[in-house]
Amino acid sequence: MKKITLVLITLITLSTTTAQIKVGSATLPIEEKFGDADLKINGYGKREVLWIDLYAGGLYLTNKTNDSKVVLDANENMAIKLDIISGFVTQSKMIKAVKDGFEKATFGNTKALDGRINKFIGFFSEPIVKKDVFDLVYIKDVGVKAFKNDKELGLIEGRDFKYALFKIWLGEDPASESLKKGMLGL
Predict the structure, then answer these.
(1) pLDDT tier at 5 (50, 70, 90 boundaries)?
(2) Can you tell me whether residue 76 is helix, strand or coil?
(3) Which residues contact 55 (CB under 8 A, 6 or more apart)?
């Protein structure tokens, strides 16, 4: 009887654990489920500045691709996960990085997105600390839902917003070229 119990416990444990990838000191899941969207990791990497790892990032898609244009143009469920691995990432630095990212992504033409960008920046109203995890989830035909440590922060409507937001990491002038390549599996 003890052997049967041990086998059952082992099987239950194995079936409830999910495969993960270690990225620096962060651990990213291979698969994510957001609502009814089952997404698989497309690629992953780290954002580094002066040899300091700031955060690990993963791109989650329904179908793998190494073409950033396909990701940016797609009206499909997808997500970017950012796992903060450094105390150097603070609330004020994140806000500045997001503002700068939108400026680059839109070539300085943020006018059509300004209200939504400001709402998005409001999602960073609480302190950001090491081990915080942000999920930026695009829901087809709806918009981007943002989560911090699995708590929903809010929804920003519009595919055009998703395009500009994801372009921060996947555009021609990304926050980190090595992270972009990693997220695209290159």
Answers:
(1) very low
(2) coil
(3) 26, 46, 47, 82, 83, 84, 85, 86, 89
CA-based radius of gyration for the chain: 18
Summarised one tens digit per residue, pLDDT across range 108-136 is 999 999 999 999 999 998 999 999 999 99
Buried b (16+ CB within 10 A) or exposed e, 19-55: eeeebeebebbeebebeebebebbbbbbbeeeeebbb
132-169 per-position pLDDT tens digit: 999 999 999 999 999 999 999 999 999 999 999 999 99
Amino acid at 39: L
* pTM metric for this prediction: 0.85
Q: Which two tokens stand for residue 106?
A: 């839109």
Residue bearing tokens 């040899």: 51
**Backbone angles phi and psi of 131, in degrees to 5:** 85, 0
| Tokens (6 digits) for 130 | 């090491």
CA 23 distance to own-chain centroid: 14
